[in-house]
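Collaborator request, handled under Task 6.
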Amino acid sequence: MRKHITGFSNPTVKYLRSLRDKKHRKRAGQFLVEGLRLLEDARTSGRVPQTLVMAEHRAPHDLLARLENDVLAAGGEVIVTAPDILAKITGKDNPQSVAGVFDEWDTALTALDRSAAPIWLAAQALRDPGNLGTMLRTADAVGAGGLILIDDCADPFSAEAVRASMGAVFTVAVAQARWEEFLPWLRAGDGQLVAASLRDAVPYRGAPYAAPCFILVGNELQGLPADYETACDLRVTMPMRGRADSLNAAVAGAVLAYVVLASLEG
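Structure tokens returned to the collaborator:
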């Protein structure tokens, strides 16, 4: 269905605006994505928005026309509105000419197949959506099976995390769980849990990594709780040559992921 919206007070506009808030996203089970590049990444990965919102008088684009056709073919809704109303929806003064609404998908641990890849990323209490998005990009880059978010992490479906992922949120499996759920799930099958740590750690280069390897990083400020580190099968340390005593959480995960990848492929 295709329709034109002209008023700021339209209920659909109010609903779309509400998806910028986590509480409303979780209640609705939907999230908002802005920009043709991200929407095209979603489409090519097999995900089409339920609702497509386009600014009127925009320049024609073949990708946008293809996306619009796919949304309509799937029974979705296409909304055309003024650029200032689209800005109201996205919360940006200069929004891109298109946005889409997607249904959130299953993020349960049971949806994962640990045999699908030799490397997995996991993050505990990761609060920065930019770091979360970066870890999704890293997971995509190294061919990881997915990213597992443990305890209270940033929302992977927030606009900030989706944007930082550069489309990887659509290509990388995401699971969410409490530590009390994650650890029994991991121990019920094959899987080596590895963390960067100073506690009885070995050098990160040449460590005995084994597939499937689950690389765990902790909170940006506090790192991993001591009992979480103790539960790991392998703890590795990365040298700090300068004055800094640690790496950014997402950067540490990326460094370890590539070291593990080289080890498993070598």
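The cover message to the collaborator said: "The radius of gyration is 21 Å. Residues 249-265 form the longest helix (17 residues). Please let us know whether this matches your experimental observations."
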